[in-house]
């Protein structure tokens, strides 16, 4: 079974001020984890299974820099085809629709920000062995890293069949915002009649990895409901002179469609799951696979806290795999000390008596004398003065920290200058500007086609199309008294 892999690279709103949502930031796909761009981990994962075609989708502004990295990656990869698509589309559903003419097989939708030790072959086999009536297999996981902030791990409410079933299914999904706004959790009565033992999960996380049958594309539409009904009647009229294969294909095309315009892919998956039970005739379902092995790790580096933990986890894996490799020893009593659990770029300059532990130092960085760096991620081009103490900090590209600065648990925007003697704890230091504000001085949240974002489309409870479908089936949207 071959797959066309689609890797979605959003701007990284939750990774501000490091990502390109800030003028000083860099493309989310290129944010380094252990001095390797995030997109590199996704591509290496694809390489393990040998997907015949990979399309990387990023914003038009980020496409040149992402393309530059991919060009260097192509020189060593065994992947046959890796292409870049720069786009100004706002939603991943629109992107997949635009790629439909190029997809000649089953396909897989991936985020660019995941890091895992789970074999892709394992997940491919899960999709191969799915329920024959399932068109999509969604991959879900539980967080097993203790230090990621809990608030960054708040997931959607997922409604699914029991995981003890042979083929668990996704039935529905609701954002926390929708549930909070409604102040109640409302379940469709049609679903409960058909799946009375359904489970509501609030802690299971979405990997944003979806294995999809090529037939999914035949069920997506950009047309209004009236236009679809007209097409369906014309197709039924023409069925008499079709052969068996054409009739089978026409039956699929004549099924109720999922309106895919201005929607992120995860909501299209949700609508596909709803479609399986909301009509009098049952339709294809969405498989629900939960990664249960506690010894396997899956990380979405889509927040600053998760990004920090991704760096730490990768470094631990490298130390474990390379435990016998000696680190360069200090040649004099005044030389810098770099721990075995740290990574320092070859061209970084480290001052005398500076200590670096459990940290990552990027390219072209300059660290002064008598500095203490513990549990930090320092991106490229950072300049740090003498006697600076940093603990659990992320320092953005080309930031400058003057002498005797002491920061704990802080995030520093790229190019920011931290004045001499500054002491701060658990703060985010950013360059003051009007960037990212609207006319009223309020923040603008522009996540574009982030697969991890909460977009502003129609409510999970008041989806107009969904309600219309119910009315036609003679069943109210909710069981109202």
Automatic annotation (TrEMBL):
Keyword Protein biosynthesis: yes
Region called Disordered, residue ranges: 439-481
Keywords for the protein's UniProt record, in alphabetical order: Cytoplasm, Initiation factor, Protein biosynthesis, Transferase
SUPFAM superfamilies, sorted: Nucleotide-diphospho-sugar transferases
EIF2B subunit epsilon/gamma LbH domain span: 332-412
GO cellular component, one term: cytosol
One GO biological process term: cytoplasmic translational initiation
Compartments in which it is found: Cytoplasm, Cytosol
InterPro entries: eIF2B_gamma (IPR051960), LbH_EIF2B3/5 (IPR056764), NTP_transferase_dom (IPR005835), Nucleotide-diphossugar_trans (IPR029044)
Domain (Nucleotidyl transferase) ranges: 5-143
Lineage: superkingdom: Eukaryota
Main location class: cytoplasm
Gene3D superfamilies listed in its UniProt record: Hexapeptide repeat proteins, Spore Coat Polysaccharide Biosynthesis Protein SpsA, Chain A
Single GO MF descriptor: transferase activity
Entry's family note: Belongs to the eIF-2B gamma/epsilon subunits family.
Subunit structure: Component of the translation initiation factor 2B (eIF2B) complex which is a heterodecamer of two sets of five different subunits: alpha, beta, gamma, delta and epsilon. Subunits alpha, beta and delta comprise a regulatory subcomplex and subunits epsilon and gamma comprise a catalytic subcomplex. Within the complex, the hexameric regulatory complex resides at the center, with the two heterodimeric catalytic subcomplexes bound on opposite sides.
Functional description taken from the UniProt entry: Acts as a component of the translation initiation factor 2B (eIF2B) complex, which catalyzes the exchange of GDP for GTP on the eukaryotic initiation factor 2 (eIF2) complex gamma subunit. Its guanine nucleotide exchange factor activity is repressed when bound to eIF2 complex phosphorylated on the alpha subunit, thereby limiting the amount of methionyl-initiator methionine tRNA available to the ribosome and consequently global translation is repressed.
Name this polypeptide is given: Translation initiation factor eIF2B subunit gamma
Species of origin: Nadsonia fulvescens var. elongata DSM 6958
Taxon lineage: Eukaryota, Fungi, Dikarya, Ascomycota, Saccharomycotina
């Amino acid at each position: 079974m071959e797959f066309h892999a689609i890797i979605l690279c959003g701007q990284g709103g939750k990774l501000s001020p490091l990502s390109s949502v800030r003028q000083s930031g860099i493309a989310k796909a290129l944010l380094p984890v252990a001095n390797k761009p995030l997109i590199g981990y996704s591509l290496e994962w694809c390489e393990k299974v040998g997907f015949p075609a990979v399309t990387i989708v990023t914003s038009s502004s980020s496409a040149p820099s992402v393309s530059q990295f991919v060009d260097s990656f192509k020189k060593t990869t065994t992947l046959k085809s890796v292409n870049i698509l720069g786009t100004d589309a706002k939603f991943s559903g629109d992107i997949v629709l635009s790629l439909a003419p190029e997809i000649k097989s089953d396909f897989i939708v991936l985020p660019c920000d995941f890091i895992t030790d789970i074999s892709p072959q394992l997940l491919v086999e899960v999709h191969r062995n799915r329920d024959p009536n399932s068109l999509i297999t969604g991959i879900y996981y539980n967080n097993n890293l203790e230090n990621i902030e809990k608030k960054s791990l708040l997931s959607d409410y997922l409604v699914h069949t029991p995981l003890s079933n042979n083929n668990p299914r996704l039935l529905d999904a609701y954002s926390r915002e929708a549930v909070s706004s409604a102040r109640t959790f409302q379940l469709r009565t049609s679903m409960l009649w058909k799946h009375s033992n359904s489970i509501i999960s609030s802690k299971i996380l979405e990997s944003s990895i979806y294995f999809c049958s090529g037939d999914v594309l035949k069920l997506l539409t950009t047309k209004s409901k009236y236009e679809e009904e007209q097409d369906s009647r014309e197709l039924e009229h023409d069925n008499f002179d079709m052969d068996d294969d054409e009739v089978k294909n026409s039956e699929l095309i004549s099924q109720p469609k999922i309106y895919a315009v201005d929607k992120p892919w995860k909501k299209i998956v949700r609508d596909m799951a709803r479609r399986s039970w909301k009509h009098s005739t049952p339709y294809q379902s969405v498989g629900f696979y939960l990664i249960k092995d506690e010894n396997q790790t899956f990380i979405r580096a889509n927040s600053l806290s998760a990004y920090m933990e991704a760096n730490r986890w990768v470094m631990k894996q490298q130390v474990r795999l390379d435990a016998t490799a000696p680190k360069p020893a200090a040649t004099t009593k005044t030389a810098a000390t770099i721990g075995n659990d740290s990574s320092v770029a070859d061209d970084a300059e480290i001052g005398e008596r500076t200590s670096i532990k459990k940290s990552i130092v990027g390219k072209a960085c300059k660290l002064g004398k008598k500095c203490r760096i513990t549990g930090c991620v320092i991106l490229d081009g950072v300049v740090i003065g003498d006697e600076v103490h940093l603990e659990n900090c992320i320092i953005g590209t080309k930031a400058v920290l003057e002498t005797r600065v002491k920061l704990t648990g802080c995030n520093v925007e790229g190019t920011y200058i931290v004045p001499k003697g500054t002491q701060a704890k658990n703060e985010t230091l950013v360059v003051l500007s009007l960037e990212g504000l609207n006319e009223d001085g309020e923040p603008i949240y522009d996540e574009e086609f982030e697969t991890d974002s909460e977009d502003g489309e129609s409510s999970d409870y008041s989806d107009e199309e969904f309600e219309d479908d119910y009315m036609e089936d003679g069943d109210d949207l909710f069981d109202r008294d």
